[in-house]
């Protein structure tokens, strides 16, 4: 089995993580996984939503969106249509949950961090790329909040790292990190979010054509945990660089 | 470990499937799993959405909703708020995908079936109960369409059966079919949709508190496949009864 | 003149009033008038809308809705269309006004009761059935509030009872409690809401085809007051039963 | 009983009907009943809504609206709030039904007439004033359509005339044509739409405080039919004048 | 060059300014420039929007709208479409900015004035007519606020006067105050807002067909300043009259 | 007068024009003017909006948007708020008009080009930067359409070039190409769109504080025409480079 871009089944596409891409945001990352390109910005504000006030705990949330011409055919803007589609909602919620899995709300204190993930160019795996990039922007934003003393000295709001990857079965073969051409042909499609220590935050598998059996599920999970481990390494390298 | 209602970890709540509950719909089921009560109606119309016209293929879709006072505290109506929430979108899409997994579009012909799943009373597992009940309403609607000759003689639009159940880890113990009180305390929450032959259509696991490891994931998958097999049996019994 | 279901012109359809249908709501009634089936839930919350705060007076309001497949042909969900239709608004307002006619706001104190009337199956007279059922749910909710001491001891928020019925002229004959087949053929259509002592809360008559004269109006009002008196008796019987 | 403006209980406020107020519309009337001032324009277009195409029948509909500062306190614009309120919907529907009661759809042919009733100044009775004025604009628009041969020679789309008035019980006394100060104090409020030959098109009575009995209802109906007869005369006089 | 209505290129259409047209508003003007007719009402309320509270400064804003049949062809209501069009937003913002140019926020104190400009009949120049009329309504509203002591004694919230006019190049000739028939044929269209002392508040020129050069721009600016001076005189005359 | 970044009053910020930034769009440019960064994509589709069908003429339109954290403080997404703000509408319309000024609709044929201008980072002058960048993307898209034979051989849909710049008066000094810090302090703010031959397409001047006189207006127009000429040169250089 040869993949269209010559990768092996368990190989990621080339990944670049450009920190500090925006001058305004407290954390900002332009991440690319192959031709998928997502701008992730983290905005820190003091205070929390009303339902959380007085709890002493912080909040982290995310909003995902795609530029109209990020894709091969131009899509309508959701602002013009006047409502957010189900897919956008679903992905925004997934990103938020994934990041909150590595947040200690008490340590964060009553601060809110919003992650905006805007897909500038799409070629498969936009939601997983968004999670992976947003984590890095979040880490930078938290470092900023610590430097500004918004977070109390000695507190560590981040309890771990998180990254995500897509896997799928194409022509009967389990593959890591699907490009768009692979994604549309996949019989099964799965998005997996893992922490840096190899545990699962989200497992979302969907049979697009044929239902999948336990053995296939296991093969996909193996690929995904490997891919997430590779991404965790790239995140660490990016964050170790001085801005 | 004793559960609040005395069940064992791998035991479903009592299930009732009342077919033909509505006089207007081509298929209609009032399903209850414990205190969760969902009215599922299947509406058949000739023709398909514009993007599918002329394909010779049918379409199946679903809409999920909750009555304002299905829950312990009254929620605002989405019609009054003027937009559908992310959760509602996500669940409607899940139900639609689950049912389409057992549909042969060619055999269905250019007919559309809409499954409306309205939660009349909620006590955990509303989306999985909706899938399980909607399958039965769908089967009745297809039988109706066959009797009316909307489906060509000899064609079988249904390629299998589908049922769904929730599983979760509560206080470290994997449990089947969570009630609301268990659901809010679960560290990990998973919804699993299976076909009658035991394969997976959807696996959606989320770490609510702690990330989960591969062993826990396996335990949850074991519970879920067992629960879905039990539900498949109950669906068959319900459909074998003459209306 | 024989009616399609054999009733005399001044005869109601069979009515059933099932109290306590929902476990969460403070009052809940599944009412059926013939094949029209409405779930009425009453939700009590402490406090009142902002414009009424500090007045010492309570508030009662209602929301009416129809499930998409309550009718013979599936209708779009108002939540999906993103706005509530004129008919829904009009009926919600009618139900609210009807119930408020028997409420002593001072005695209720600063509590709010919302009546949700969801039509599960429609066969004519859904708005009048909703009023009749909602009154019973409201009575149960007020009893609950009294038991919980939300209402001061000795205060009686309910000043009377209220019920509603439709009447119309079909082929020149005035008829009580129209079924859908009768309703669509009616020349004149009237909804009447009466208190238990036979006075009017609402009279809404509309000439669908021919304008109607004073004599016809009088005949319709006679039928309606008779029908409301019958319904008041059934409400009393239902409320006299121990739950 | 003396009324604030010195009228007797059965006396209308001064009415002026200014035809041809707008240069663009096919029919246009600025009507005032006391200080209530409504601009009614009738717009004729060839063709009918999709659901009526090919029927050979026309359609008449209405839209009611109030300028933000028509009232004593400025109200938000419905265009700014992004949705039409229940009251506006209800009144638009009432006006449309009232006018359709005197339309012969076949004679109108496949033409649509939209009546826009915009309240420029409000002092009670805006919906009934709108009906009364809209009828005159409608008559002018139909005359225009006949002159333009949009309506076939010899066909009479108008089968009669229609006018409306409000009545109510204030301090126990039934009164005709309530001003705002009377309206807010009314125990019962009723809007009545009559044809020129004295029959009813709409009767909408609501107990604002106390339920009303049959005798009170009769007194109100007597007042209303008298008021509508007076208005019908004024409409005829206005239409008899050459523009 | 003869204009359709016989005017010279630098001549305004006949202008009438009817103050006190509405009984409810603190300031109200029905202004007509030729057949363009706009009702401008000014509503004064104590207090300011949240973002301005405690500043000691007031606020002035405007909303522009057109009745559906103000134009030759009926337009949809923005309230029915559920959103405000770009053109409406743009004009509302222009009117608000124009009036704020002659307001001393400190002198106004924490009061808000909303100008509603509703076009009852349109024949070109609706936005400029709205500015010119709204200024007069604003002046009356401020006088009212001064009389009511909402504005502190001796403070003058108005720092000058403001008026607006449209100019354009039609068939190569610069013209003042375009009617609709001229406007649609204009190669260049410009709206100019001037203070009474001849300075500019807004200059908005748009090439509808051919780009325009500096010389043409100068000719248009000359015409516009002349027209605004004429309008300023008419405003002064209107305000000098006792209401 | 020294500017914060050391520029002279008549000096542009550094401009970079990166063509072909996106792989999907027919034309795409990432343009930066100082720290203002806008992604402009041009999408070509065959066919035109309904109101233009059969005319043989094409259409060009634009949509402007800002990422939530393009600015110093995060703004709400318009898709989340459910409606597009007045400012966004106004700018989208300005960009569309500016580009259409250099389009020969007949030569374009029945094709539609949509320019999406998404501000990735904002530091003043986002709308003028969008116009300048969108022109380059438009030119590339037209070249693509010519190569694909969507445009007939020998036809030149582009009749010229167009660029835009902001000017303003800060502390009494007219300045070219304002940064955000200058913009917020400007007494007068003007956006000017010019064709490559130095004529005006749009002139939009607004007095933010003091009204401006004719002399100041002339000084601003001089600066703006100079700046647009510089930008036209940079556009030409960018387009002369082989992609």
Automatic annotation (TrEMBL), chains A, B, C, D, E, F:
Give the EC number(s) listed in the UniProt record.
Answer: 2.7.7.56
Q: Which residues form the signal peptide?
A: none
Q: Which GO terms describe its biological process?
A: rRNA 3'-end processing; rRNA catabolic process; tRNA processing
- Report residues binding phosphate: 87, 125-127
| Keywords carried by this UniProt record | Nucleotidyltransferase, RNA-binding, rRNA processing, Transferase, tRNA processing, tRNA-binding
* Enzyme class name: transferase
* Residue ranges occupied by any Exoribonuclease phosphorolytic domain in the UniProt entry: 11-141, 161-225
GO MF, any single term: 3'-5'-RNA exonuclease activity
Keyword Cytoplasm present in the record's keywords: the answer is no
Which superkingdom does the taxonomy of this entry point to? Answer: Bacteria
Q: Which reaction does it catalyse?
A: tRNA(n+1) + phosphate = tRNA(n) + a ribonucleoside 5'-diphosphate
Q: Which InterPro entries does its entry note? A: ExoRNase_PH_dom1 (IPR001247), ExoRNase_PH_dom2 (IPR015847), ExoRNase_PH_dom2_sf (IPR036345), PNPase/RNase_PH_dom_sf (IPR027408), Ribosomal_Su5_D2-typ_SF (IPR020568), RNase_PH (IPR050080), RNase_PH_bac-type (IPR002381), RNase_PH_CS (IPR018336)
Q: How the protein assembles, per its UniProt entry?
A: Homohexameric ring arranged as a trimer of dimers.
Protein function: Phosphorolytic 3'-5' exoribonuclease that plays an important role in tRNA 3'-end maturation. Removes nucleotide residues following the 3'-CCA terminus of tRNAs; can also add nucleotides to the ends of RNA molecules by using nucleoside diphosphates as substrates, but this may not be physiologically important. Probably plays a role in initiation of 16S rRNA degradation (leading to ribosome degradation) during starvation.
Tell me which family the UniProt entry assigns to this protein.
Answer: Belongs to the RNase PH family.
NCBIfam families assigned: RNasePH
Q: Which PANTHER family match?
A: EXOSOME COMPLEX COMPONENT, EXOSOME COMPLEX COMPONENT RRP41
The name this protein goes by in its record: Ribonuclease PH
- Its source organism is Streptomyces kanasensis
Instruction: Specify the taxonomic lineage.
Output: Bacteria, Bacillati, Actinomycetota, Actinomycetes, Kitasatosporales
């Amino acid at each position: 089995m040869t993949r269209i871009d010559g990768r092996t089944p368990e190989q990621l596409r080339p990944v670049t993580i450009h920190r500090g891409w925006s001058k305004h945001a407290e954390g900002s990352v332009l991440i690319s996984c192959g031709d998928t390109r997502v701008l992730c910005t983290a905005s820190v504000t003091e205070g929390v939503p009303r339902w959380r006030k007085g709890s002493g705990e912080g909040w982290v949330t995310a909003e995902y969106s795609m530029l109209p011409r990020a894709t091969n055919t131009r899509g309508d803007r959701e602002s013009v249509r006047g409502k957010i589609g189900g897919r956008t909602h679903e992905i925004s919620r997934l990103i938020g949950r994934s990041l909150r899995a590595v947040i200690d709300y008490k340590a964060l204190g009553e601060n809110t961090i919003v992650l905006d993930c805007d897909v500038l160019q799409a070629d498969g795996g936009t939601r997983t790329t968004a999670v992976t990039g947003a984590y890095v922007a979040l880490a930078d934003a938290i470092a900023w909040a610590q430097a500004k003393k918004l977070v109390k000295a000695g507190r560590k709001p981040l309890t771990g790292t998180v990254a995500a990857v897509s896997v799928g079965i194409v022509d009967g073969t389990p593959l890591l990190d699907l490009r768009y051409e692979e994604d549309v042909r996949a019989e099964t499609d799965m998005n997996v979010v893992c922490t840096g220590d190899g545990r699962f935050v989200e497992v979302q598998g969907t049979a697009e054509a044929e239902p999948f059996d336990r053995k296939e599920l296991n093969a996909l999970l193996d690929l995904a945990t490997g891919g997430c481990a590779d991404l965790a390494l790239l995140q660490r390298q990016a964050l170790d660089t001085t801005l």
